[in-house]
Amino acid sequence: MLGSAQRAHHQVTFVVLAASVAAYALLQSLVTPVLATIQEDLHTDQATVTWVLTAYLLSASVFTPIMGRVGDKVGKERMLVVTLVALGAGSLLAALATNIGVMIVARVIQGVGGGVLPLSFGIVRDEFPREKVAGAVGVLAALTAVGAGLGIVLAGPIVDALDYHWLFWIPLIVVVLAAVAAQLFVPESPVRTEGRISVLPAVLLSAWLVCLLVALSEAPSWGWGSGRVLGLLAGAVVLAGVWVAVEQRSASPLIDMRMMRQPAVWTTNLVALLVGVGMYATFGFLPQFLQTPSEAGYGFGSSITESGLILLPSSITMFVVGVASGRLAARLGAKVLVVAGTTIAVVPFLLMAFAHGAVWEMCLATAVMGVGFGLAFSAMSSLIVDAVPAEQTGVASGMNANIRTIGGSVGAALMASIVTADASPGGLPEESGYTHGFAMLAGATVVAALAALLIPRTRHVPHPDEPEHAELAIVAAGTVVGDRPE
What we know:
By secondary structure, the chain is mainly alpha-helical. The chain folds into 2 domains: about 5-195 and about 255-485, Growth Hormone, Chain: A (Up-down Bundle), CATH 1.20.1250.20; about 200-255. About 75% of the residues lie in helices and about 0% in strands. Helix 4 (about 50-75) runs antiparallel to helix 5. The longest helix is centred in the N-terminal third of the chain and has 32 residues, at about 130-160.
């Protein structure tokens, strides 16, 4: 049993990590509902303003695994502070931006904040008692999704009461406090990897991710068969192949390909990709559906604030389930939670596709979505952390988060193409476009549930200091125990 001083230390560390993750997650989605406002204020066009989202996505996708790997080598606490400083600097620049170019640069700098996720998971793995790791990782993982949902909920009230610049000022305040607290209270992790940091793998990783994500982001407007999209996709495939070959031959790889081939890792990453398709596409397109004037034959003519409130149940249920996920994992196993979560998550997409005529139906759908994705997100992060050596926690969890982001890009691009397929130029999409789009997301989530069955079965490995039975451990420690791959 830990002494009270040590428990207090871990609680303070967790609060700092939670604040850091929440601030980053909020910045993922706060600007999504107000792009039109930013477009008007910064005197730009619709095609250019979408880069406020795309630039952030690209930057986060590149820096998330890289910052995790650097943290594994030079120290996670040190890199957490660096990451928070970058996130704060980008937020400050965005809050002060007077033209679209500066805003896009600011969002690129903010994307460095993606490193918060793998670094926080790594710090939990290194510093927390073994029996507390699964619960802490589960809550932090849930916060990433909860924050993304809350960003859409809070954007309207913030803009109505203040203006859109406060979408950056408020996270900036949280980030500054978290950075100071991290420097003062989060101990430097003792676990380090040996060797130098390879530059070529980092360049190749960045190159193929940029090609892939630009192609997916622009495909709905450029056309899936356009030369630019096909060329970028081909470039992504070639560069990814070269990257894998270089990593396999490297004495000090950025990402260990042997680790990525572990059954518990690649299967969990496959599920993460498919879960990302569904969840992030919903956050992007459900508000548009809700805000469509009812005269179109569907939609509710909701304001930004009202559409956010309809999404609020997902954030509430996701957080509640994330908090409880550790205890559930101890009793049932993390694989069971991923299978159950992805199976449950099919239901809300079917409701959105075929039962979207009343507000209460949409509230029910978002609440059920939070339960399903809350279970899946929390358990997936625990599986990754448990499956790899401590010194590879940062890069492994970084790639898992990155793969979810790639899935989100795929889902958003497919959804945009389906929804707008039958729309007249400059007109509203047909209801059938949304029906087919949400049905497609249901199909992707069904595949995610099937993929979850491939995850290796896990069993509980008692911590040396915990009681013999898991139930007694929960009572005695007031927390959870994790799973280990067999």
